[in-house]
Amino acid sequence: MVSSALPRAFLPSSQRLLSSLAGSTSTQTSSILRHKLGQLPANSLSDEVKKAMSLDNASRSERVKFQTMSAIKEFERQPGDTGSTPVQIAALTVKIDSLASHCAINKKDHHNKRALTSLITRRRKLMQYLERKDFDSYAEVIKKLGLKALK
């Protein structure tokens, strides 16, 4: 905990950041730090800080969130688009890949196997809808995500 007699505005930025995170848990802290440090210019961070805050050291859920955000950015039609069919298919594909790797390791985790099948079903239905409505974007989604075409 950072304690200082100086007002908060006079503290260095790193101490202000640490004092603002005082009441949060460790996973919340790391997520907030990654977000805040991602907004800083790249040359203002030392190599040690960059290495410590890289996605290699992130938790599995943080990596999935990052992958989902990047997939959404790739398929969005306009900024903030999270509901269009290609975006939903891309987000589901990231979740499916993560859950499939988990289920491959944990063979007896039947709860997540059931969740995996429901996600696959949801993605298949969205793909069928997209194929019916807009075949060109369906073909583009299939190609970018590396999925098999529906029968």
TrEMBL record:
InterPro entries: Ribosomal_uS15, Ribosomal_uS15_bac-type, uS15_NS1_RNA-bd_sf. GO terms for biological process: translation. It holds the Pfam family Ribosomal_S15. GO terms for cellular component: cytoplasm; ribonucleoprotein complex; ribosome. It comes from the Eukaryota. SMART domains: Ribosomal_S15. GO terms for molecular function: structural constituent of ribosome. Gene3D superfamilies: 6.10.250.3130, S15/NS1, RNA-binding (1.10.287.10). Keywords: Ribonucleoprotein, Ribosomal protein. Belongs to the universal ribosomal protein uS15 family. PANTHER family: RIBOSOMAL PROTEIN S15, BACTERIAL AND ORGANELLAR, SMALL RIBOSOMAL SUBUNIT PROTEIN US15M. This is 30S ribosomal protein S15. It comes from Triparma strigata.
